[in-house]
Every structure is written in structure tokens, then in C-alpha cells.
């Protein structure tokens, strides 16, 4: 599956982690408040451990979606630490852990290959109903192939697009055959070869 806005989402999460880390460094050796207790600082900052844990949980889900296994584990461990960590944990320790997580995500993404979609082709990415509601509702078993056709077009893989279109067309032809009560189709003798189940 092609993910829209992955780079923008990663940048936002990186900025969020850096923001929490910078605030925590500024506070330094002060002990983290208990979960659910908001602390107002002289600088005007309101600190809530639950909010920080929720933001780290969002990072965990993003790492899982992006298949960044090491970063996901580190993020999950940080979330648990924030929710159930030792009572004497300090903001400075939190800053170190946040910086470490942000660096882990950056290091792990270096080894990934990302595909850039030209802006004029981005309209085809992950289209659920590329041929409209009528086709979507009439041929539910062709939905995945029709959606993948758009992804192939977006990636300029025209042979793949043709393959998925032929599979979708096959579904339509079998349904047409059943509608016209063609004996060969009605018997479903070739349904195992085509991957289309007769209803």
C-alpha cells in the first residue's frame, strides 16, 4: 500500500518529540509529576505526563505503520516508562529518552527506500472507488484490483495496471455470463482457475 503524506507526518512527529525533549531539558532535574497530574511551571508551561505518553503512543503507531521495528519497540517502551515509570524519574532523563527515540527513527528510516509519486499522478493513489459507486457496488470482488490499478498507474507501472484491470474485467465477464445464463459459466467449472467464485 502507498502511504500519503508519510514524510510530512514523520516531520510533524519529529518536531513533537523535539518539542517535548527541549521543554524537558529546560526543566532539568525536577521529578516528573505522577500520571494524570498537571504541573504548571514558572515559564508558563503546563506539563502533563498523560499527554506526553499519548504523543509517544502516536509515535509507536506511526512506527508500526512504517514498519520501523526497532523504533516501534523503543517508542512503546518509552510510553510504558511514562505511564508506569519510577517515581523519582526526572525531566532530564525524559529528554534523553526522547532524543534517543527521535534519533532511532531517523537512523532506521535511512535504510528504507521511499517512492516519490509525481503530483499529477497522486490522484490515483489508494482510490477506493476509481470507477465510481456503480462499479464499486456491483463488483465487490474486483474492488482490490481496481484500487491497485490506480496505485500501479501512480507508480508508472503500466504493466501492473493492465494486470489488475484484466483481473477486474474477468470478474465483470463472469458476472455477465451468469446474468446471461451461459451454461458453461453457470456451472462454475472454471471458477477455481479464475479465482472467481460463483454465487
Q: What gap, in angstroms, lies between the N and C termini?
A: 29 Å
% residues in beta strands:
under 5%
| Share in helix | 55-70%
Mean pLDDT across the residues is 82
Strand order of the largest sheet: 1-2
Shape: elongated
Give an account of the 3D structure:
- The chain has 199 residues and is mainly α.
- It has two domains: 6-110; 119-194, no CATH class.
- It has nine helices and two strands, in the order αββαααααααα.
- A two-stranded antiparallel ribbon has the order 1-2.
- Helix 1 packs antiparallel against helix 4 (91-110) and helix 6 (143-154) packs antiparallel against helix 7.
- The longest helix has 22 residues, at 6-27.
- The chain starts with 5 loop residues before the first helix and ends in a 5-residue tail after the last helix.
- Mean pLDDT is 82; it is low at 191-199.
Which terms summarize this structure?
two-stranded antiparallel sheet, 199 residues, 3% strand, disordered C terminus, mainly alpha, 2 domains, 2 strands, elongated
Summed up:
The protein has 199 residues and is mainly alpha-helical. The chain has helices at residues 6-27, 49-65, 69-84, 91-110, 132-138, 143-154, 158-179, 183-187, 191-194; strands at 38-40, 46-48.
Topology, please?
Elements: H1 6-27, E1 38-40, E2 46-48, H2 49-65, H3 69-84, H4 91-110, H5 132-138, H6 143-154, H7 158-179, H8 183-187, H9 191-194
Helix pairs in contact: 1-2, 1-4, 2-3, 3-4, 6-7
Amino acid at each position: 500500500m502507498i502511504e500519503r503524506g508519510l514524510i510530512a507526518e514523520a516531520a510533524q512527529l519529529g518536531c513533537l518529540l523535539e518539542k517535548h525533549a527541549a521543554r524537558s531539558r529546560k526543566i532539568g532535574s525536577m521529578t516528573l509529576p505522577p500520571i494524570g497530574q498537571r504541573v504548571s511551571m514558572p515559564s508558563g508551561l503546563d506539563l502533563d505526563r498523560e499527554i506526553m505518553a499519548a504523543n509517544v503512543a502516536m509515535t509507536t503507531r506511526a512506527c508500526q505503520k512504517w514498519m520501523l521495528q526497532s523504533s516501534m519497540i523503543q517508542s512503546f517502551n518509552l510510553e510504558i516508562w511514562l505511564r508506569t515509570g519510577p517515581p523519582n524519574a526526572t525531566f532530564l532523563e525524559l529528554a534523553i529518552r526522547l532524543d534517543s527515540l527521535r534519533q532511532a527513527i531517523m537512523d532506521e528510516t535511512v535504510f528504507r527506500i521511499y517512492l516519490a509519486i509525481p503530483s499529477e499522478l497522486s490522484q490515483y493513489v489508494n482510490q477506493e472507488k476509481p470507477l465510481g459507486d456503480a462499479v464499486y457496488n456491483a463488483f465487490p470482488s474486483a474492488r482490490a484490483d481496481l484500487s491497485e490499478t490506480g496505485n500501479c498507474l501512480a507508480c508508472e507501472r503500466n504493466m501492473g495496471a493492465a494486470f489488475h484491470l484484466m483481473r477486474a474485467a474477468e470478474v465483470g465477464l463472469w458476472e455477465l455470463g451468469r446474468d446471461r445464463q451461459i451454461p458453461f459459466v453457470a456451472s462454475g467449472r472454471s471458477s477455481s482457475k479464475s479465482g472467481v467464485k460463483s454465487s
